[in-house]
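hey so i finally got around to running the thing on that chain from the lab meeting. sorry it took forever, my laptop kept dying and i had to restart like 3 times. anyway pasting the input first so we r on the same page abt which one it is
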Amino acid sequence: MSNTVYQVSSRSGVKAKKLRRDGIIPGVLYGREFKDSIPLEMTLSEANKLLKENTKSSIVKLEGLEKTVTAIVKDVQRNGATFLPEHIDFQAISLREVISVTVPLQILGEESLTHRRLLFQPNVQELILKGPAEDLPEKLEIDVSELNFEDKVHLSALSIPEGIEVEAEEDVLLGVVLSAQMAEVDEDAEEPSEDSAEPKVIGEEE
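ok and heres what got predicted. didnt touch it at all, straight out
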């Protein structure tokens, strides 16, 4: 859990467009402990700091309301042109509450493959994990430094903390080691069709 406390404040009826012009990002906080969702706001600099320092599964503390709230970021709406945040949804949680979060996969040891003119081609970039909030990892690591050509990494190779469930029904293929030359050929191939599979999030509904 992040030790940093992020500053928010209750939001009045000011329109979101005007808030953004003034460097304020609107948001909302909801959770089991609240009967109704709470409109809130935070400065653009504070929002950028929060999103830079944390992942999708990070547990953060929000200060500036009636009490300090423990929460996770559930959704971020960004401007299509500037990619700056325009709205943030927070879900208030308790540390022992069982929740589902999207966790990124971090690839380690790629420099070892590069020296051998190999590369790791990911098939999955994120996984959805379920478990007590305080036990959920912020990322899952895949060490590819000792892998060889055509070696594959499946879900079973990951070290999943005890008590944490991966929302996937199979030993899904996470990625494969290819030669750098093969990857260059693939990049020169025709554009994939709409049905072609992009790196996906396991656990999301079709």
